[in-house]
């Protein structure tokens, strides 16, 4: 894998990586650290990537491991960062929906961000989070129910 190719793929994924890390860690400085650490680990292990088409899920899997380790080491972190550049849109209903997503328990928030905001397939999310596809489907379903209830209360 050439350095230029790797750097270009990382540039394409930076927003998704930061959005996911911030969604997990809820702190902009920690999210930046996690993304940097994941990029460094991915570069060090770039020869292990056998299928270049799987780069996105491979690097997100590394990032998921980094964020889990950080959560374990640092405990719960309060949200301090401004997510607006990474949410897709800060206007109206989309902003409220993002706030509801951020209020979900971690296991639901992970799958919602990866599925709806970053466009990963259920199979890819299962690989990234190291859970079964059934678990991903269940978490998505439960998250949608929680979001629907919160949305109805809001309206």
How would you describe this structure to a colleague?
This protein is mostly helical and 155 residues long. It folds into two domains: 1-81, Orthogonal Bundle (Rna Polymerase Sigma Factor, Chain: A), CATH 1.10.1740; 89-155, Winged helix-like DNA-binding domain superfamily/Winged helix DNA-binding domain (Arc Repressor Mutant, subunit A), CATH 1.10.10.10. It is 73% helix and 0% strand. It has seven helices and no strands. Helix 1 packs antiparallel against helix 2 (28-44), helix 1 crosses helix 3 and helix 1 (3-25) crosses helix 5. The longest helix has 23 residues, at 3-25. Residues 76-83 and 86-90 have low confidence and may be disordered.
CATH topology of the largest domain: Rna Polymerase Sigma Factor, Chain: A
The 3D shape can be described as globular
SSE class:
mainly alpha
Report the end-to-end length measured between terminal Cα atoms.
50 Å
Total of helices: 7
Rg result: 16 Å
Order of secondary-structure elements: HHHHHHH
Could you give a short account of the major beta sheet? none
Tell me the quaternary state.
Answer: single chain
Question: What is the top-level CATH class of the largest domain?
Answer: Mainly Alpha
Count of domains: 2
């Amino acid at each position: 894998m050439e350095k230029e190719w790797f750097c270009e793929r990382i540039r394409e994924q930076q927003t998704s990586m930061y959005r996911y890390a911030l969604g997990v860690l809820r702190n902009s400085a920690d999210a930046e650290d996690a993304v940097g650490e994941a990029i460094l680990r991915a570069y060090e292990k770039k020869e292990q990537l056998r299928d270049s088409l799987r780069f996105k899920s491979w690097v997100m899997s590394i990032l998921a491991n980094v964020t889990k380790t950080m959560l374990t080491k640092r405990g719960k972190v309060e949200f301090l960062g401004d997510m607006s550049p990474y949410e897709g849109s800060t206007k109206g209903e989309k902003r409220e929906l993002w706030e509801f997503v951020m209020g979900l328990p971690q296991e639901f928030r992970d799958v919602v961000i990866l599925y709806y905001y970053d466009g990963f397939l259920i199979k890819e999310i299962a690989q990234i989070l190291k859970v079964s596809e059934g678990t991903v489907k269940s978490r998505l379903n439960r998250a949608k129910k929680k979001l629907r209830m919160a949305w109805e209360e809001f309206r």
